[in-house]
Amino acid sequence: MDTAPGELDVGRAVQAAREALKQPSWRSLSGTERGHLMNRLADLVDEHGETLAAIETLDNGKPLSISRSYDVPHFSEVLRYYAGWADKNQGSVIDIGPKKMAYTVKHPVGVCGQIIPWNYPLDTAAWKLGPALSCGNTIVLKLAEQTPLSMLYVAQLIREAGFPPGVVNIISGRGGEAGAALARHQEVDKISFTGSTVTGKEVMRMAAGTLKAVTLETGGKSPLIVFDDANLEQAVRWAHEGVMANQGQMCTATSRLLVQDGIYDSFVERFKAFTEETSILGDPFDGRTYQGPQISKAHAERIMSYISSARNDGAEVFHPRGDLPSRGFFVPPTILTNVKTNTTAFQEEIFGPVAAIARFKGEEEAVEVSNASRYGLAGAVFTKDLGRAHRVARNLEAGMVWVNSSNDSDTRVPFGGVKESGYGRELGEDGLKGYYSVKAVLVNLTDE
Ligand code: ADP
């Protein structure tokens, strides 16, 4: 296992992965045995859970209560889920008449380059490692430069679990150097990337050099539609969670809120009150903290500049009362109301605790405004009308839709986007599809 930044080191990691792919110690393992290794790793992650949660919080700034209750347990849950698939990797027999026979076999894609972001360092790694290992690939995983620590710790656990050398290679390093070297490398068969849309496009261009398989999970500006008949209390809570959790640093944040005329004022009033109530910013190691600092100074400043531009474009800006903590890159939870739907605040991904709210009259308008975006990652709809819920879910241009919730993902359910939010899926059975190739074998059963 390597932990090194430069282009040469990327080459060494790729070489190690290529070599491991040929070795019987990995290649000849049955799916069942691969599953055992993955389960062992999941157990080790749980055993080291407290340490990993503390590292994740230290590195990323998210509240320890969340790292402990969500990020770490989700890592082992994803590994166990895909360990369960490892021995169910079956092909099929296709009946093509009495004189021939055809069957398919699923092969690993090969050496998989995986590039992850800083907002969920452990979990985005698990989403990529899980299906890749389940299918028998080898991996070079590049961590985000802002948050390398938790996965470097997991690197030791991977060794301890008994994975053969070279199967999982973890590298840190800058995106433009280590990430680009990986995306371009001749000996890498597949690139799976999670990050910004701009970088995703660049990765795709580089991967084109050797026609690598590519899966991308990129940006989003997901709508959350609240109809007049919604359970208002429920809508307020989920709307808050959907944009304020994780310091607002979620690609699936439902950051565009569309609220129907009849309840607009009462929704906004309650949303503000709930935001005020939960606005506990500060030390992420303090159990009472809801919101920690943003990932970096530059990122906090970028969010603040989006808030100013919204104000200049005529939006009203609400922040809860109280001062920000004196140390750390904090951004106050922000609610923008009366936002025009063609302005920057409503169209661009802010990646911070900023909700942009606009009003609508009817269902058709809500769907049209929701779809007027270059992104298509997720969407949410709040209504008690079953027919409308399913109709809107069907009509939204998004990879995922929540009905009466938001950002309520599940290991067993595919995750990913359409349009400029990327393609390919992670999690669930669909998450495996990017990690095997199907070989068809045709057998002539005659002497002809
Ligand atoms: P953000 O802007 O949120 O930091 P990025 O998309 O730039 O998101 O980064 C996500 C991941 O992509 C990180 O691991 C980063 O190092 C990597 N990355 C950044 N630029 C490149 C690049 N040109 N080629 C490959 N990977 C990159």
From TrEMBL:
InterPro entries, per the entry: Ald_DH/histidinol_DH, Ald_DH_C, Ald_DH_CS_GLU, Ald_DH_N, Aldehyde_DH_dom
EC identifiers of the protein: 1.2.1.3
Gene3D superfamilies in the cross-refs: Aldehyde Dehydrogenase, Chain A, domain 1, Aldehyde Dehydrogenase, Chain A, domain 2
Aldehyde dehydrogenase domain ranges (all copies): 8-441
Record-linked Pfam families: Aldedh (PF00171)
UniProt-annotated catalytic positions: 217
Domain of life the protein comes from: Eukaryota
Keywords associated with the record: Oxidoreductase
GO molecular function terms noted in the UniProt entry: aldehyde dehydrogenase (NAD+) activity
Catalytic activity: an aldehyde + NAD(+) + H2O = a carboxylate + NADH + 2 H(+)
SUPFAM superfamilies for this protein: ALDH-like
Family: Belongs to the aldehyde dehydrogenase family.
Protein name: aldehyde dehydrogenase (NAD(+))
Biological source species: Trichoderma gamsii
